Every structure is written in C-alpha cells, then in structure tokens.
Amino acid sequence: MLGIEYPLFQGGMAWVATAELAAAVSNGGGLGIIAAASMPPDILEQEILKARTLTSRPFGLNIMLMSQTAADATELAAKHRIPIVTTGAGFPGKVLSRLKPLGTIVIPVVASVAYAKRVEKQGADAVVAEGMEAGGHIGELTTMALVPQVASAVSVPVIAAGGIADGRGVAAAFSLGASGVQLGTRFICCTECTAHDNFKQAVLQAKDRDTVVTGRSTGHPVRCLSNKLTAMFEKMEHEHASVEEFHKLGMGKMRSGIIDGDLEWGSLMAGQCAGMVNDIRPAAEIIRGIFSEAASVLRTLGE
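The structure assignment produced for this chain is given below.
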C-alpha cells in the first residue's frame, strides 16, 4: 500500500522528526516522517526538499492539527505531492478533503474507537492507534486495550503505536490485530537523529517510571521525561493554574530540551518505552534488528 519494505512508521515527533531522520528511516525500509508541528512554512518546505535529496523512497509528513500552521503544512503537502500524510491532535476533515483528491494516503492518529470509526467514514486510508504509553500528546487508553478494539471496529489497516521499542512489541502488535507499528522514542536514539546529545543520553538513562503525564487538567495531557519543568507543571495543576499560565510556562520549552539540551527546564517528550532504549545505532540497523527479533519471537510462539 505504501511502497515500503517493513511495516514500520517513524513517529512525527516535533523538533526530532527532521528530514535527516525521515530519510534515514525511509532508506532503512520503513516510512520516515517529517513533523510539521508548528514549523514556519518556509522552514518546512526546506525540510521537504532536503528529504528529497536524501532519499528516493517514500516518506511522509505529520500535520499537527491544533497548530496554527496546519493549513500551511497541508498546502505544502499538496504542492510537493507528499505521498503519505499522518495527522494528530484534531479532526482531519480538511486535510482529507484537500489531499485525498490528489491521491495522497491520509492516516490519522487516533486514541479511541469512536475517533477511528469517524475518520474511516471520512475517507482515512488507515489509522494509527496510539496508546497512552506514547510520548507527547496522549489519550486515555493503553496500546494493549486500544489496538484490538480499533482493529475490530474498522476495516482499514491499523498501525499500533505507544510503548513499542523492540521486536517483542512488534510481535505483540501483530497479535493484537495491527498491520504495522509506529515507533517514536526508539528513533530519538539513532545516529541520524539531530536532537541534542543531552536529550539522547536522558533517554538512554531513563528507567521504566521516569516519564510523567502533565496537563490533564487542561485537556491536553502530555508525556515527558520527568524534570524540574514537569514538577512545576504538576505543582501548577495542584494549584489550579489557568490554561494561559500553563501555556506561558511551556512556551519554547520543546526547543530548549530537544535542540538546546536543557534537561532541567526543557520539555523532553518521550514514551514509557524509554527504559527499553539502550544504545544509539543507525536507523536502518535499528529497523533490521527489530524485525529480526519480531520474526524470532513469532517463530517461537508458533512452536
């Protein structure tokens, strides 16, 4: 369906999912994805053009629908005929109506059965069912509970996401009814990722309980590695701070953490599987290793 070797998506992580990472994953046989996030249109266009110089294989674009630049990202996807677009943090109706007539494969990220059924009716080609183990913006259901229910509810392919970092997770996803997987946190620690080394080392050193979820009171819960910033968010939630106060505190903190390497006051979005990431390797090597392990696990289960 997508023209890729392995049924693997690289997550559209803001400030992490650059042209370099997307191209490396695509060259490794998966689907690399550039994160539009809140990127200004001129910078995003540069990333798209750069990716085209780094890979001849299919790559995608993730559009965060709550971003003020979502409409610009959609138009750039149309202009450059991006073959696959994933969406998150909102309803993708406008993206579907704009890009589907151009032949773009549109795959929304969903966190509930109702949402999956809605986007299928709107014309989604597949869905990414993402559990709350994932880094960044999350829903309420775990991957284990969400994926099989979504797989039973829709007829389009389901890609499992959230908490998957190795071949065991891939094998489990297939067992739950998924046709593919999406990994984000694992690709923070790959050679081609341009994130600050401090961030990579924080992921490598993370243990199973080193992520926390903040922002539940705002309606936009986010999972990050715990640090002084998340502690301040938790304190403000306890004190019933306003959404405006949360927004002010969070302004610019993703760049601080991911690009500048501020481990105390930067936003270090990562999933619960960070504790399973133990090395930094090229993306292609990571992908091959994961699917080799998955095949071994599935063979063992079949015995």
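Interim note for the steering committee: The chain has a mean pLDDT of 94. The domain at 8-194+279-302 is CATH 3.20.20.70 (TIM Barrel).
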